[in-house]
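step=encode ok
step=design start
structure_in=
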């Protein structure tokens, strides 16, 4: 069997996921060839399995308007470039690890017309709830329904919301697979040395790592500090987009008198730097807004470190994992009171170590993921040749 993994992004959670998938599929005995198709600017070591085929997702222009036009161009051209290259490939299982939802109504009919039944298509639903995507709910439903109609397999992680675009798809198999965890490098020594200065007796270090997004509820964590004088908070990552206003969180910390206990590392962290941040912390806070329905990729970065977790108890894959494997404290979404109580439970001196990561680490292996996926693919209709 041949595997092609499609990524239109060159950084972030989907990119890390694609890298891990490539490695896992290449190890499977039934995979004759696996390749990963990525943007031209992807920073990766030279590898015959990696093909830089698509438009850059990091345009050099400082103009916001030009960046928006570039995004629109990528959304239209990348699927066409993928189509052109798939037309000359042998029959393969094509995994959409990224997908251009906004232009799906344009490219999906072309895929059907030109490729027919030559390939089998798999979509990874990293965010299975697309309702927040522009330009409207009606368009979202139309574009997602169009795209899902192309797919033979839809992969999700632990939780799939009841959405109109996942119904009445008799030709599509919905497959629940473990996300897989990420082995991390040794902590960056320079950053770790700097962060070690934050340690002191009785102090508890929290962190919210990764790209800075509003749905991570930084305001609740900052407000919780005003009730927890022994806690400090590290916010480590870069703004996910131009709409994120980091200054508003800094202003809130100043108003509440906790700005000295909020440590900002405003940059896109290398894996070694992220390792340093997680290594130094006591608790990782994944207190997402109720609209969050995915499984946070950061969970699978944290898992090998076996750190304590605070997670919002919303309708998400992330919360489902915690309920199933008991690897963290669940708190009420949007509630400062619940967040404070959860942090107190973790920091209580009499609290026992009750979060066992071993079962989760055994379940969430990429080997387990690929074995289950390959079993599913082997049962699909034969591909045309």
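sequence_out=
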């Amino acid at each position: 069997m041949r595997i092609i993994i499609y990524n239109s992004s060159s950084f972030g959670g989907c990119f890390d996921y694609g890298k891990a998938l490539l490695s896992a599929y290449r190890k499977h005995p039934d995979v004759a060839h696996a390749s990963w198709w990525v943007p031209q600017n992807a920073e990766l070591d030279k590898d015959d399995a990696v093909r830089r085929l698509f438009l850059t997702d990091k345009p050099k222009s400082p103009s916001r308007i030009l960046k928006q036009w570039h995004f629109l161009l990528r959304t239209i051209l990348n699927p066409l470039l993928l189509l052109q290259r798939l037309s000359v490939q042998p029959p393969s299982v094509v995994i959409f690890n990224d997908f251009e939802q906004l232009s799906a109504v344009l490219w999906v009919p072309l895929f059907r017309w030109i490729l027919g039944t030559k390939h089998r298509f798999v979509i990874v639903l990293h965010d299975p709830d697309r309702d927040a995507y522009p330009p409207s709910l009606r368009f979202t439903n139309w574009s997602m329904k169009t795209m899902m109609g192309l797919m033979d397999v839809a992969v999700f992680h632990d939780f799939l919301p009841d959405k109109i675009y996942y119904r009445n798809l008799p030709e599509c198999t919905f497959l629940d697979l473990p996300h897989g965890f990420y082995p991390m490098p040794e902590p960056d020594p320079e950053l770790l040395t700097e962060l070690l200065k934050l340690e002191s007796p009785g102090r508890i270090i929290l962190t919210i790592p990764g790209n800075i997004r509003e749905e991570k509820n930084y305001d609740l964590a900052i407000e919780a500090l005003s009730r927890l004088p022994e806690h400090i908070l590290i916010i480590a990552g870069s703004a996910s987009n131009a709409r994120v206003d980091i200054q508003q969180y800094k202003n809130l910390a100043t108003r509440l008198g906790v700005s000295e206990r909020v440590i900002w590392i405003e940059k896109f962290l290398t894996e070694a730097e992220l390792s340093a941040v997680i290594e130094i912390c006591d608790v990782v806070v994944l207190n997402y807004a109720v609209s969050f329905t995915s499984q946070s990729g950061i969970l699978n970065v944290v898992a090998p470190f076996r750190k304590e977790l605070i997670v919002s108890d919303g309708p998400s894959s992330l919360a489902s994992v915690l309920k199933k494997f008991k690897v963290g404290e669940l708190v009420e979404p949007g509630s400062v009171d619940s967040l404070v109580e959860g942090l107190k439970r973790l920091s209580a001196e009499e609290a026992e170590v009750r979060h066992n990561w071993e079962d989760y680490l055994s379940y969430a292996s990429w080997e387990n993921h690929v074995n289950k996926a390959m079993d599913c693919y082997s049962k699909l209709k034969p591909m045309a040749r």
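step=design ok
step=annotate ok -> The chain has a mean pLDDT of 89.
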